[in-house]
Structures are given as C-alpha cells and as structure tokens.
Amino acid sequence: MRVLVAAVWLMTTSVFTLPANADNVSAINVHFPEGARSASYSGTVRSYDTVKYTLGARAGQKMPVSFSPDNDSTYHNVIAPGADSATFTIGFRIDTVTRQAPIAPANDNKPVAAPKSDFADGYGGGPDFWRVAGISDGDALNLRSSPSADAPVVLKLATGAVVRNLGCRPVDAGRWCKVQLLGDSDEVGWVNGRFLREAETPPDPTSDALVAGTPYHATGRISCRFKGDASVTTCSFGVIRKGQGEADIDITFPDGFVRKLVFSNGKIVAPDGASVTIRRHDDNTNVTVNGTETFVIPDVIVGGS
Questions:
Q1: Are 291 and 227 in contact (CB under 8 A)?
Q2: CA of 9: how far to CAs of 51, 88, 295, in Å?
Q3: I need a labelling partner for 59 at 20 to 30 A (CA). Which of 1, 75, 209, 225 fits?
Q4: Short-list 177, 168, 185, 165, CA closest to 141
Q5: What DSSP character marks residue 13?
Q6: Is the pLDDT of residue 7 over 50?
Q7: At residue 13, what are phi and psi to the nearest 5 degrees?
C-alpha cells in the first residue's frame, strides 16, 4: 500500500495536481488559535488518499513540521508557493554483512570478513591489547610490514601471543591491525585482525618480586626426562618473567648443565640453536629438545600466579 498524506504548501492559494491513481484528496486550511504559533491536526488516510494542508508564511520565516504516522508507508511533502511538485535528495547505502569465515591457515593472511566482536573500529579504537587466537594447530600468524597479504613477513606469532593494539583499518573485505610486541622486543607490524581477540592488560613484570639472592622471579623443580635414563624425573629451574607469556627459563641438569629456554610470543626456542618441539596438555607445555630432553612446564611458571 502506498499512502500520500500531509502535502503542505507555504502559500495561501495553490494549484494542486492529482496523481493519476489518487483515490481521495481533502483540503484543509491551517489556522492557528489566537496567540498560538502552532497547530496540530490528526486524520486517517487509506490507499492513495491525499490530505492537502495550506497555510501562509512570510519570506525568511522557518516552519518546522512534525509528522508521526502509525504506518511507515505514509509520508509528507512540503511544496513551495507556485510549485506543483516537490524537490528532494535521496541516498542509498548497503552495509557489509559480516560473518565468521571458516578457519584457514594463518600464513595465508587473506583479507576476510571480520567477526562482529573484538575488533577496533578505525584507528585508535578497540582494546589496549590483543591476543592471537583462532589459527590452525601448528600454524602461526604472520606479522607483516604493512597491511597487505603481499607485504614482507617480519616474524610469526603463535597462539596466545599478546600484542599492543595500535589501531585497525578495513582492507578489502577484512581488517588489518597495527600491533607492537611486548617485552624486550618492541617490533611493530601489521596482522590480519581475524586472528585477534581482546586480551587483558598485561601485568607489570617489575611488580614480580625476585627470589632473594637470585635473578629469578621463581625457582623450584619441574618434571624432566632424558632419553635412555629413567633415573632422572625432576630438574631444578629458575624463571625470569617479562610479562604476558614472555620468560627466560634456566633448567639445571643433574650433572650441572643448564638448558636455557626462551618463551616469546607463544613460541619456545633454545638460544644455543637446539631443535625444540612443544605439545600442550591441560595447563602445561611439554617441551622436547633435540628429541632427547623432555620438560613439563606449567603455565604458572611463565605467567606467574
């Protein structure tokens, strides 16, 4: 149903041309009560009915018109003196419908539609910190030099890595976010925002007291195994925490050798170049070095209580 109502003229007399398919047209001369500056009218229209309200106004005066129909198909026009038509401006907009796309290898870093939550709207919006999430097992998120899947890779971020949010921007059908690494490394780059979720504000590592007489924030013993030697079941450790999953851990073998492990951005490496593989189990990370040394490292050792 199309309904025309409240055609308003700023003149005392006018020429009104009926639409070819109009049903009924009624004319009302608007009168203000004595001393009043406004008047209100109510009525009912059906189908293509039209109601024409006529009133006079001087040049330069303003005439606000309030119109409250109970049917959204009803509308009004304001017609200038001597005119039999209305001039208007119309605009159209289609917003992107976003949905969570199936998980794909993060190395592709292809622009995809961003989830409705956990994303910054434009530069400077969103949370202070992001954590990496939603990437495939064994994969990593590429930190690139610019917001493009074709830009050079600066480094790779594993699941759980926490970065500072420097602002996001829409790119094609997805969104890229500029981030800064925490801890000793302050590397800055761009990542596909699809793989970011809001993270809590990281604690200040300087507030983590040291164990007296040591450079470590915590010391103790962890489970360890050595291939071909069933006699060793635990090793002593010391950890230097740097905040948000970054830490240096020294593990002392029974013979006095110290195995150093560096936790950074969700990855674990051995500074001496030894090969490292990891496997998650509950709240622990099982670390195997050179295929012969295995250590069980609880999350609390790296992150603190």
A1: yes
A2: 11, 15, 86
A3: 75
A4: 177
A5: S
A6: no
A7: -135, 155
Question: And the tokens for 277?
Answer: 């593989």
Q: What is the pLDDT of residue 82?
A: 61
d(CA 143, CA 123): 18
Are 270 and 278 within 8 A, CB to CB?
Answer: no
- C-beta neighbour count of 244 within 10 angstroms: 25
Extract long-range pairs of 298-302: CB within 8 Å, 24+ residues apart: 298/222, 301/218, 301/220, 301/222, 301/237, 301/239, 301/247, 301/249, 302/239, 302/241, 302/245, 302/247, 302/249, 302/263
Cα–Cα dist 33/286, whole Å: 86
Architecture of domain 106-198: Roll (2.30)
pLDDT digits (tens, 9 = 90+) for 55-98: 777 777 777 777 777 765 566 667 666 655 555 556 555 555 44
Angle at 145 between CA 191 and CA 137, to 5 degrees: 40
* Phi and psi, residue 205, nearest 5°: -60, -20
Residue 99 identity: R
Whether the Cβ atoms of residue 112 and residue 175 lie closer than 8 Å to each other: no
CA 126 to CA 147: how far, in whole Å? 17
Q: Which residues contact 206 (CB under 8 A, 6 or more apart)?
A: none
Pick from 62, 61, 69: which is nearest to 44 by CA?
A: 69
Distances in whole angstroms, Cα of residue 251 to Cα of each of 267, 296, 297: 17, 11, 10
- Interval 153-183: pLDDT, tens: 888 888 888 888 999 989 887 899 999 887 6
pLDDT of res. 102:
45
93, amino acid identity: R
Q: pLDDT tens digits, residue range 25-45?
A: 788 888 888 878 888 888 887
